[in-house]
Amino acid sequence: MDVTAPAHRLSAAVSAASRLLPARAGLRLRADAAGLTVAGSDPDLAVRFACPATTHTDGSVAVPAAPFAETLRMLDTDLVRLVVEGSRLALRLDNARFALPLLSSEAGLPTPEPPQVSEVDGAMFASALRIVAGTASKDDPLPLFTGVRVQAADHLTLTASDRYRMAVARLPLRAPGSLDVLVPATLLTEAARQAKGNVGLHAGRGRFGLSWDGGLVGTAVLDAGFLSEDSIPSAAVDTTVTLNADALAAAVRRVGVYAEDRRVLTLEVGGSQVRLASARQDTGEAEETLKADVSGGRTSPSFQARYLLDALQAFTGERVVLSIQPGMRACILRPEEPGEVRLTYYPMPMLAR
User: Which CATH architecture has domain 2-101?
Assistant: First the structure.
């Protein structure tokens, strides 16, 4: 193999693959008339990124991902030439040479990609996913809560929950499709961050994939059946509050400073206002009142401040409607004026001390 590639484009492709693959993974480089392809895989994951290049001699080799990515990241040059020299892949520059050992012929072999079932706008998908994936659990011993449920029919639905809150986003598809999988949230977020333009959604045989011009990420999936918005009762709403999300978030930050270790604060709703209150034995107490449009009776649910802030950040610059249910049922947050992406957030109330 002998190929010349733009250093920054090659570095971007190799770095993207390295971030997604395990630390000791190998990368397979394939050069042909179409350019250079960077690919890698393990039993659960497969990635592929394209890089423009001038191919002098076709070929395919595998090299260790981590040192290859680190070397490319530090190069200060426009072009880099990759040439196989015996049992090494040499990176040749005008004034330098670096050589990586070649791995076995099986390393980084591509995994067949599942068929495409639909397509979605990449920027819209990534934006919605950042919000929804933020509610997935970071607790690996509970893997079923570390994923995002991806469902497609006439529209795309993204759902995630860590048992204390749930977020659901609905967004339009470029074409109808049939899909229902649970995908690891961290991986899905990183893949969506890399995607550009329209993004293909792939599914089949226990796998899920995203594809776009120049890239593909595929992964094994988890069991999706249990994670559903339908599992949250939402028919008992007796009070609704409509107000500016940014103003409420700012008040939550200020009043939350005075909450106890669990950082629980109370929203006392009544008349045409919301009063936020919290107290902490060693630092004192705080309260703040905001004007709001209130429908229904008086109520005073309590929430963990950081969960409420996470929910409100999803509605930055908008007026938000809080639909409050009695007892310990979830509160429902939606924008007053729904956009193209329809987002619903369900923070669970807490027991106030």
Answer: Roll (3.10)
